[in-house]
Amino acid sequence: MESTDKPTTPPPKSDEAPPPPPPAIRRVNCFVVDVALRVLLFAATLVAVVVMVTSKETEFVPVPPTGAMMRRTAKFNHSPAFIYFVTALSVACLYSIITTLASFSTILKPAFSKKFLLHFAFWDVLIFGVVASALGTAGGVAYIGYKGNSHVGWTKVCPNYDKFCDYIISSLAMSLLASIVLVLLIFLSIFSLYKRARD
Amino acid sequence: MESTDKPTTPPPKSDEAPPPPPPAIRRVNCFVVDVALRVLLFAATLVAVVVMVTSKETEFVPVPPTGAMMRRTAKFNHSPAFIYFVTALSVACLYSIITTLASFSTILKPAFSKKFLLHFAFWDVLIFGVVASALGTAGGVAYIGYKGNSHVGWTKVCPNYDKFCDYIISSLAMSLLASIVLVLLIFLSIFSLYKRARD
C-alpha cells in the first residue's frame, strides 16, 4: 500500500530516507484496497450464482429399475444443497454491494474509518461463515454426484450430465475465490486495527 | 468482564463513582474469557469427533436390486464428507489445545498480548473457515441420508440406521457450537484490538 505513494512524495534533499506517508493517507490506501477486494467479491459471488442458476441440462438417461432411456433434466434446484448455495452466495453478493458503497464513503470521509473497520470485520466474519458452509454443502453433494457412494447405493450423476457438472465445478471455484477474498478482507480489517492500536 | 473486578476495588470515599480498573487488568480479563472460550471449543470439537467416530451401527437392511435382507454396517468412514468432517474437527481440537496454552501464557505475561491478539484473530478466522465448511459438507450429506433425493434416485439412509443418524446429528450440533465459539473468539480479538486502537 505504501509503495504506491512513494513516487508522489518529494525526493529527499539529504542522505536521509524519505519520510513515511502520513497516517491519513495510509488509512485511505487501506480502504482503496478494501474497495477493490469488495468489487472482486461482488464479481466472484455474482458469477458463482449466475453459473449455478444457468446449469440446466437435459439428456436421455437410463432410469432405474427398468433401465429404459428417458429424457430427464438436471437443475440446481433439484438439490436443497445447491438452493442453499445460491441463497448464501446471493446474500454475499448483496452484502458486497452495500459494503463497497460504505467502504467508498469512508475514503471520502475518513473520520469514521475506525468504527467502519470494526463493523466490516464483524460482518465479514459472519458472511465468510455463510459462504464457507455453503461451499462445503454444495461441494459435498457435488462430490457424491461425481463419485457416487457404493456403500449406500447413491449413483453417479456426472457421467450423464457432464455440462451440468462442469457448471457446478465452475460455480464452486468462484465461491472458493469469494471465500479467499473474504478472508483477505477480514485480515485487512484486523491488521488495520492492529496498526492503529500500535501507533 | 469489568464487573468481576469491582468487588476487589476499594470502596469510594466520596460520592464519586468508583474508578475504572486499569487497562492491564482489563486486558487480563479479556484473556480469561479467551481461555474459557477456547476450553469450550476444545470440549465441543472433542465431543463432535468422538461422537462421529463412534457412530457405527449394524442392521439387517434390504439390499437393491433384489431387496434381500442382509447384515450391513453404517460407519462414518463410508462417506468422504464425514472423513473430512472428522479431520477438520480434529485439527480444530488440536488448535484449541495449543491456543488455550498460548492464551494462558498471555495472562501470565501480558507484555505480548497485542501480538497474540493479532495472531489469534488470523488463525481463528482460518480454523473457523475449515470448521464451517466441514459442518456444511457433513450437513449436506447427512440431509441426503435423512431425506433422500428422488430426482437422482439417492435413497434415504436414516430409516434403516436411526442410531447412526442420531449420532451424526449430535456431532453436527457440537460442530455448530464450535463454529459459534470460534465466531465469539474472533469478535473478542477484534473488539480488544479496536478498544486498544481507541484508547
If you had to describe this structure to a student in words, what would you say it looks like?
2 copies of one chain form a homodimer. Chain A contains 4 helices and 2 strands; from the N terminus they run αββααα. With 199 residues, the first copy, chain A, is mainly α. Chain A has one domain (22-56, 74-198). A two-stranded antiparallel sheet of chain A has the order 1-2. In chain A, a hairpin with a 4-residue loop joins strand 1 and strand 2. The radius of gyration of chain A is 23 Å and the shape is elongated. Chains A and B meet through helix 2, helix 3 and helix 4 of A and helix 2, helix 3 and helix 4 of B.
Annotation keywords:
homodimer; 199 residues; mainly alpha; two-stranded antiparallel sheet; 2 strands; 66% helix; elongated
| Extended strand count of chain A | 2
Approximate shape of chain A: elongated
Chain oligomer state? homodimer
Our estimate of the beta-strand percent of chain A is 5-15%
Radius of gyration of chain A, whole Å: 23 Å
The number of domains of chain A: 1
Task: Give a short account of the largest sheet of chain A.
Answer: 2 strands, antiparallel
Task: Give the termini separation of chain A.
Answer: 17 Å
Biggest interface and residues each: A-B, 50 and 50 residues
* Biggest sheet: strand arrangement of chain A: 1-2
